[in-house]
Amino acid sequence: TVFHRIRKEYVVQGGRFTEAMEEKKTGLHDPIPCEWGNGLKNEKGTIAVARGAAADSGQTQFYVNMKDNPILDAAWQVGVGYAVFGRVVQGMDVVDAMGAAKTRFEHPAYNEEHWAVPEEPIIITKATVLPPPESKGESGTVEKSKPDREGDKPRTDEKKESKDRQLAALERIK
Length: 174
What we know:
Structural class: mainly beta
């Protein structure tokens, strides 16, 4: 996966383009439902689904937060924020180096300043999904993380198991 958007002190984003910086046309799936109400926040090192203007429009794009970004947790015009689904647990130094990469604002698909394309391609060559963390509660039973925003509804344990994964990140970049 090539990273096509580097915003220093904000996010690094990838998943939309091929290494030739052409929009992906194969390997796409239907948009996924937004899971913004899962209680996970856009904090430094978290990984979230990038989406379009519609709430349930996430497909191939994701981003890693370079800092705590509470603005991305807020409900926007479509009534939801951006859904976090993982965390970098190893390799944050690599992500920080990505955030410091020199960028340019030229790309045929974009004409806006916020699309800072790296001058040299940055590509994930390996990422590992780890099982979700478990913690022992007072009763000695395993507890999953719970939503902490008022009005959020916890997901079922089955969904929690499949979605709250951590990512051991970015062993190497080109």
